[in-house]
Write a structure and sequence with these properties.
The protein is of the alpha/beta class. The chain folds into two domains: 182 residues, Rossmann fold (3-Layer(aba) Sandwich), CATH 3.40.50; 124 residues, Rossmann fold (3-Layer(aba) Sandwich). The protein is 27% helix and 24% strand. The strands form four sheets. The protein has a seven-stranded parallel beta sheet with strand order 7-11-6-1-4-5-12, sandwiched between helices. The protein has a five-stranded parallel beta sheet with strand order 14-13-15-16-17. Helix 3 packs across helix 4. The N and C termini lie far apart (55 Å). The model has no long low-confidence stretch (mean pLDDT 92).
Length: 341
């Protein structure tokens, strides 16, 4: 909070594989709402080494409404270390004079937010799916978040004058739009002294995965035990590729060894909210529904007409997925090749 009582919000510009994540732009949009008229929005990007691509990420944030983007570039930040990254965000909070800090509710965001809140003695509102301004400033905004695996929702307001940390769920809030030419923010390097680290990342062994991040995918094609084998995911992967989407799975498919647990969607896996969710051979256990029931449009493909998944589906196809999915793929290919047909 500035001396004039106006809110300054700080956004953590999370990057993945050298690119700014879309959820960072959604967090920026939320921060602009929380800052209100006359408030300020800053951002911070953190990393180290030539592969971090921090200048590109900072430029994009500045072009979408961040008035100042603080760049923390240090070799100690080349690998994700929670203590080091939290300290870098803390340094940016001090430089910006921020009272509201907004992060994406991602794996690293969930790791960092409580640490930052503890450092600042701040409140913490996690997994926000909607921000509704009711006046001017963060204290007037209503934040909505799901409870009990999406069975209920609660609404919260931020205490005026107190520091707050907020995480926003990917794919739920609109991304910040580019500002007018000439109105872009500035980019400034931020001095940083690495703190003592309890853990050090020496290397990362990546598992094979799709080209589209599951948490931010607009389209997800998910398989359950009905795919019957690892090879059974091949038609699902082809359909996802045609639609520019990602492949997901139920816990049953993961437990059966058909795919990696990195693809698991559900109460003990990832929570996703794509524009289109195609469930293939998934019965619809409550644990799975907890992770995808907020999808915009749900299409279910299952041989069992009484499968619970049809209870939440917008569209249902009763049939063998190995017949239905290839036909869907062929039809989508035809439509995408001839948009006016």
């Amino acid at each position: 909070m500035t001396d004039t009582g106006k809110v300054t919000a700080l956004v953590y510009g999370e990057c993945l594989d050298g690119k700014l994540r879309r959820v960072a732009l959604e967090a920026l949009g939320a921060a602009r709402l929380l800052a209100g008229d006359g408030g300020a929005v800053h951002a911070v990007v953190v990393g180290g080494g030539p592969g971090a691509a921090l200048p590109e990420a900072a430029a994009e944030l500045a072009a979408r409404g961040a008035e100042v983007v603080h760049v923390v570039d240090d070799p100690a930040l080349a690998g994700f270390a929670p203590e080091a990254y939290a300290a870098a965000i803390g340094a940016a909070v001090g430089a910006a004079g921020a009272s509201v800090i907004v992060l994406g509710h991602t794996a690293s965001g969930r790791e960092l937010a409580p640490r930052v809140a503890a450092r600042l003695g701040a409140g913490h509102v996690a997994d926000v799916t909607a921000v509704e301004p009711q006046g001017d400033g963060a204290a007037s905004a209503v934040l909505t978040r799901p409870l009990y695996a999406g069975k209920a929702f609660e609404q919260r307001r931020l205490l005026p004058g107190a520091p707050q940390v907020v995480t926003v769920r990917p794919n739920n809030l609109p991304a910040a739009e580019p500002v007018a030419a000439g109105a872009e923010g500035t980019v400034a390097a931020l001095p940083y002294a690495p703190p003592p680290l309890w853990t050090v990342v020496r290397g990362i062994a990546r598992k094979a995965g799709g080209t589209v991040d599951l948490a931010e995918a607009d389209v997800i094609v998910a398989g359950g035990r009905g795919v019957r084998s690892a090879e059974g995911f091949a038609p699902l992967a082809e359909l996802a590729a045609v639609l520019g989407g990602a492949v997901g799975a139920s816990r049953g498919a993961c437990d059966a060894g058909y795919c990696d647990y990195a693809l698991q969607i559900g109460q003990t896996g990832k929570t996703v909210t794509p524009k289109l969710y195609i469930a293939c051979g998934i019965s619809g256990a409550i644990q799975h529904l907890a992770g995808m029931s907020q999808s915009r449009v749900i299409v279910a493909v299952n041989k069992d007409p009484d499968a619970p998944i049809f209870g939440v589906a917008d569209y249902g196809i009763v049939g063998d997925l190995f017949e239905v999915v290839p036909e869907l793929t062929a039809q989508f290919k035809r439509l995408l090749a001839n948009p006016g047909a």
